[in-house]
Task: structure prediction
Amino acid sequence: MPALDSLDQSLAVEYTRIVLGMDELFRTANADDKEASFTREGLVPINLTTETPHAYKEWAHVRSDLDELQRRYLAVGDDVRRNYMQQQIGSLRSLADWSAGQPSTFRDKVRNFLYVNENPYTAREQSLLHEKLDAALTAKGYQGTLHAKVRAWEADRRVPAQQVESVLRELLAAAKQRVVQMMFPQMADVEVTPVVVCDVPYNAYCDYVGGKMYINGDLSYSYEALKHLVTHECFPGHTTHMRIRELGVAAGEIPLDAALVITNTASSSVFEGIADNGIDFIRWADTADDQIFAIYQKIRSISGMNAAHMIHSEQKPLEDVSAFLERFAFGEENWIASRLRFFQHFLRAPFIYSYWRGNEAVRAVYQRVPEADRKRFYQFLYTNMLSSDTVKQFV
Result:
C-alpha cells in the first residue's frame, strides 16, 4: 500500500475532531429522542479513535470549520480521496445546516446527505421485480398467487424462533471461514456473538465494539434471511469492514477518519453496499432458495426507499404506507411496524436510501471487475473511504 499523503493525514485528524464535536453538539440537542437505540448512536455510532472533539456551542462555528477543511482538501494528491472528501464534507455541511434549523425537504436530505439518487422505484420497475420473483418461485414448484407462493416459501424455509441463535452461530462460523479463505486472513481471530433483542426498529444490528450481532426477536426469519443478515452485519459485512479499517488506521496505512462511522453521509451507501453484496463476495449464494431470497431482499430494500418517500415527500397516510409494504414487500404486521419506526425517525429516514443505492453502486463495480482482479478490488473497497460516486472510480 502506498505511503499516506502527509497533508491528508493531518487533515484527517482535524476532520475527526470536527466530526466528534458535531456529534456532541447533536447529542446535546437531541437528548430527548424517544427511539433509544438510535439516540445512543447519535451522528457517530462508532468511534475507534482517542481524539478530543472540538468544543462547539453553535452550528455556525461547525459550518465555518467544515468550509475551511473542504477548501484545504482540494490540495490532497490522491484524486479519488480528494473527490470523496469533497462529497463527505459536503454531507456534513448539509447536516450542520439542517441541524441549525435550515429548512430542507426530504428529497434534499437524501441528495445532500447521502449523495445518491433520491427517486423511488416506479410502478413498472416494481411490477418487473414481482414478475421475476414469481417466475423463480414457480420454477421451485410453488402455485397460486404471488403472495400465496411467497407465504408458502417463507413457511417452508422458516427457522423456528428457538433455533435462531444456534443457526446464527453456525452461519457466523461458516461465513467467517469463507472470508478468511477468500478475502482477509486477518479476520481469523474475530468472534461475534448473536443476541436476540425485542422492541427495536431494525432487523439486525452489528455491535462491532461489543463483538455482538443483535437480531430482532419480534420477527420471523427464513434460513436464507439469516444467511443474508450474517453476511451483511458481520462476515464479510460490517464487522469485517470495520476490522480492516481499524487495523489499517493502527498501522498508519489508512487516514484516521476510517476509524469513524458517521450516519447519513456520502460514506453511508458504500458502507451498506459492501454489506449487502457480501454474500456474493464469498460466493455463498449457491442454491435456488438463495436466488429467490436475493430477489425478495431486493424488493424489501427498495420498499424502504419508496415507503420513506411516501411518508415524507408525498405526505401519504401511514395506512397507505403499511398497505404498500404488505402489497409490494409481502410485509407482516411486526415487520411493517418495525420498518415504520425506522422510516419515521427524524435522522434515520433518509438513511434508508443507503441500502439499495449502496447495493447497486458497489455491485455495478464488482460485476465488471475480472475474477483475477477481485482481491485488489476488495483492498480498494475495504481500505478506502468511498461514496457511491467514488467507488465507481476503481480501475
In short: The beta strands are 46-47, 158-159, 193-197, 204-207, 212-216, 221-222, 260-261. The two ends are 16 Å apart (CA to CA). The chain has a mean pLDDT of 96.
